[in-house]
DNA sequence: GCAAGGTC
């Protein structure tokens, strides 16, 4: 086996020279080359984006790669030679890429113009699939290169969309070469071991997963377009942007993700609007001992009845002597963070670094394609047992900021990750894959967050000692808590969380003292705050609205449409138009702004992937559901539009 | 002029 391998490699080198000769001398060596090339299998490899193609080629080609232009500015072609186990052959690998989806769905020409048809027809009108102008150069490149290849290996991202993009590549290539052998590589980080493992474990691509995405695309297009045309043309809201749009109406869009996103913002706003503050009363006790002031907490916390509170106050004022009835001491831990999934990442970036989710994902994407971190779109928050965490921790020892901390983890017996219980069965939690020292700006901050979170997760919980003192004053109970931090552990590297000592005096059981002050205070309940971006993302995640990659886009979209705005305190506030749309649909009895419809679709898509439902069935069911809503809104359109107009003007 | 999902 080894002998064969070496021999094949030698042939590979010879052919390589001949191939270059062929380039230089045209047909001169043609016959000779033809004979030798027959030993070599030509393989076209296609990744989802150029950066992946480049880095995968660099790893597999061990630096011996040739770069060629493809006609598409962003997509290069990299050539190298490597032995591919599942083909049992030394291969001439041509590695190139698409730029995300290559194909696009749209209505046929007869339904594309807004005035061409009743929007309801869009639920059943023909849909065409085509390569948009922006992808034509990539398509030409794929079809040109596949002609002299017998194998196609798909290197798109290992998620649902990636599988679908894989089939787009397959369709385009099969158009010119129907009898291709097709293989799929599985990887979730671009490192030597992961990429070599992928090459050694090629499988068939998964059509079911790709089918699920087709269903999602068709549904989103039909429903989005039908309702958007209906609302925009029906409401005729004048456009206040002075752009060059020849249409004078503002677009009032509906989308299966943007509408529920809006719904969350409006719902919170409503809770706040409808909130009625409730007055409440509570008793405070102040004392001083050993020079330390203590504010004791009432066990009843608060009473909503003033007279009851007065009664208790007068009762304890009769014998205002406190007796220490209980002292509890216990170990207290502050837990280190779980391994990082995408939503946690987006929320931390937004709340701790003040980098909005959209920008944070862009930075993470760049760090991933540069090989610094693992794939940033993951729902997994537990590390697989086979991952070599100690190697990853060791790699961070070069840092002047957290290197010592990484070193300490290793010295103390190695990484002990705090794992959650979610796994998408495709990607590990977000973690650094190598040390980076040359980053700047937001990318640097994002990388630092990922590294510090990773090291914190691999370290130990912080340990403290909590003392709870309980007193009774004429049968009323009050408590005081003190905290002594013993071991900071993960907190030393995780600068985003704080934990403070709280010093309290020494007490002994049955000790008696007279408090310096006993008082009754009045306060009232406060309304919930408007949502922050971080909280909205958490809600979207919880209800399955959008993907890790698009949460941020949907929030941007509803801002752009004039449905919501951001307050100076960075809270999300719905505008009249947004409130009107949500209330109008609520009013005619449809939960369009609620997340349930999208969640139901998501569930069906998973079933398509698992093979328990057919794509045709799922598509038909959901189309029917939304068409019913459409017909009803059309029937009640005067009422619906009037409701929205009232809100816009209020 | 529409969606959501990829990416530059």
UniProtKB/TrEMBL annotation:
<dbReference type="InterPro" id="IPR023406">
    <property type="entry name" value="Topo_IA_AS"/>
</dbReference>
<dbReference type="GO" id="GO:0005634">
    <property type="term" value="C:nucleus"/>
</dbReference>
<comment type="function">
    <text>Introduces a single-strand break via transesterification at a target site in duplex DNA. Releases the supercoiling and torsional tension of DNA introduced during the DNA replication and transcription by transiently cleaving and rejoining one strand of the DNA duplex. The scissile phosphodiester is attacked by the catalytic tyrosine of the enzyme, resulting in the formation of a DNA-(5'-phosphotyrosyl)-enzyme intermediate and the expulsion of a 3'-OH DNA strand.</text>
</comment>
<feature type="domain" description="Topo IA-type catalytic">
    <location>
        <begin position="206"/>
        <end position="630"/>
    </location>
</feature>
<dbReference type="GO" id="GO:0031422">
    <property type="term" value="C:RecQ family helicase-topoisomerase III complex"/>
</dbReference>
<feature type="domain" description="Toprim">
    <location>
        <begin position="42"/>
        <end position="188"/>
    </location>
</feature>
<dbReference type="Pfam" id="PF01131">
    <property type="entry name" value="Topoisom_bac"/>
</dbReference>
<dbReference type="GO" id="GO:0006310">
    <property type="term" value="P:DNA recombination"/>
</dbReference>
<dbReference type="GO" id="GO:0006265">
    <property type="term" value="P:DNA topological change"/>
</dbReference>
<dbReference type="InterPro" id="IPR013824">
    <property type="entry name" value="Topo_IA_cen_sub1"/>
</dbReference>
<dbReference type="InterPro" id="IPR003602">
    <property type="entry name" value="Topo_IA_DNA-bd_dom"/>
</dbReference>
<feature type="compositionally biased region" description="Polar residues">
    <location>
        <begin position="413"/>
        <end position="423"/>
    </location>
</feature>
<keyword id="KW-0238">DNA-binding</keyword>
<dbReference type="GO" id="GO:0003917">
    <property type="term" value="F:DNA topoisomerase type I (single strand cut, ATP-independent) activity"/>
</dbReference>
<dbReference type="InterPro" id="IPR006171">
    <property type="entry name" value="TOPRIM_dom"/>
</dbReference>
<dbReference type="GO" id="GO:0003677">
    <property type="term" value="F:DNA binding"/>
</dbReference>
<dbReference type="InterPro" id="IPR013497">
    <property type="entry name" value="Topo_IA_cen"/>
</dbReference>
<keyword id="KW-0413">Isomerase</keyword>
<dbReference type="GO" id="GO:0006281">
    <property type="term" value="P:DNA repair"/>
</dbReference>
<comment type="function">
    <text>Releases the supercoiling and torsional tension of DNA introduced during the DNA replication and transcription by transiently cleaving and rejoining one strand of the DNA duplex. Introduces a single-strand break via transesterification at a target site in duplex DNA. The scissile phosphodiester is attacked by the catalytic tyrosine of the enzyme, resulting in the formation of a DNA-(5'-phosphotyrosyl)-enzyme intermediate and the expulsion of a 3'-OH DNA strand. The free DNA strand than undergoes passage around the unbroken strand thus removing DNA supercoils.</text>
</comment>
<dbReference type="Pfam" id="PF01751">
    <property type="entry name" value="Toprim"/>
</dbReference>
<comment type="similarity">
    <text>Belongs to the type IA topoisomerase family.</text>
</comment>
<dbReference type="InterPro" id="IPR003601">
    <property type="entry name" value="Topo_IA_2"/>
</dbReference>
<dbReference type="InterPro" id="IPR000380">
    <property type="entry name" value="Topo_IA"/>
</dbReference>
<protein>
    <recommendedName>
        <fullName>DNA topoisomerase</fullName>
        <ecNumber>5.6.2.1</ecNumber>
    </recommendedName>
</protein>
<feature type="region of interest" description="Disordered">
    <location>
        <begin position="413"/>
        <end position="436"/>
    </location>
</feature>
<keyword id="KW-0799">Topoisomerase</keyword>
<dbReference type="InterPro" id="IPR023405">
    <property type="entry name" value="Topo_IA_core_domain"/>
</dbReference>
<dbReference type="InterPro" id="IPR034144">
    <property type="entry name" value="TOPRIM_TopoIII"/>
</dbReference>
<dbReference type="InterPro" id="IPR013825">
    <property type="entry name" value="Topo_IA_cen_sub2"/>
</dbReference>
<dbReference type="InterPro" id="IPR013826">
    <property type="entry name" value="Topo_IA_cen_sub3"/>
</dbReference>
